[in-house]
Design goal:
Elements (H helix, E strand, L loop, with lengths): L9 H13 L3 H11 L3 E7 L4 E2 L2 E2 L5 E5 L3 H11 L10 E5 H10 L4 E4 L7 E4 H10 L2
Parallel strand pairs: 4-6
Antiparallel strand pairs: 1-2, 1-5, 3-4, 6-7
């Protein structure tokens, strides 16, 4: 069931702008990832153990989508058909550091931030590993 998402705050709006302006530039991507670990993210979950939802492409590579807000998460879930029986969506809000650790522990090759938006950004496992190791 699509519910009304909380209003997006100034920090989230600024972070989304940072993603949009990164334009694939390596240093800007690193800056965005460093900034991300200080924020909360939203993740669609599945299964009894509430594992983070993963997507797998035809080549067998998997990715975990994470979202900067409920608004983007719900819009993407609607467009990808992730709502379950009765229109329910299983999700949780958690610290980005924890979400990134969980994604990597599930064996994904990529983390995609704000999938379905013009500023969606994909981070490879090695990039996430590197940032998490540097910020212990």
């Amino acid at each position: 069931m699509v519910t009304e998402a909380r209003e997006v705050g100034a920090a989230t709006t600024a972070f989304r702008r940072l993603l949009a302006e990164s334009g694939g530039q390596e240093q800007a991507r690193v800056d965005a990832l460093v900034a991300l670990v200080r924020h909360n993210v939203f993740a669609v979950t599945s299964g009894a153990d509430s594992r983070l939802h993963t997507l797998t492409d035809a080549g067998g590579e998997s990715a975990t989508p994470l979202f900067t807000g409920e608004d983007v998460m719900q819009a993407t879930a609607l467009s990808f058909g992730w709502f379950g029986a009765g229109g329910n969506l299983s999700w949780k809000e958690l610290g980005a550091r924890e979400a990134l650790h969980q994604a990597l522990s599930q064996g994904v090759q990529f983390v995609v931030l704000d999938l379905g938006t013009a500023y969606a950004t994909e981070f490879a496992r090695r990039e996430v590993d590197s940032i998490l190791a540097a910020q212990k």
